Amino acid sequence: MTHSPRSRNALRALTVGAFVLLAGCDIAENTAEKLAEEAKQEIAQAARDVLSETAKDLNQQIDQAQKSTEDWLTPEQQKQQDEEQQEARQDSEEQREA
Predict the structure, then answer these.
(1) CA R_g for the chain
(2) DSSP 3-state assignment of 65?
């Protein structure tokens, strides 16, 4: 079966058009994948930033609570607490040396 030159040209044009369309789909898919990966990385970084800020805030609150507790202690209680901390350090050092 012979095809006319016109139908062969139309078939060629259709084939080329199909290849161009497929190439465009691949480019669009690759771009979408890259954008999705970038968004994922940005979300992860934002989560790390929020977690870091939360930890910082929590540490500041703990420091304030410790300072408030120290302010409430009487000098005698403070002295006793200091002695207990010193004994705990000495015990820890002795255990490391043993």
Answers:
(1) 36
(2) helix
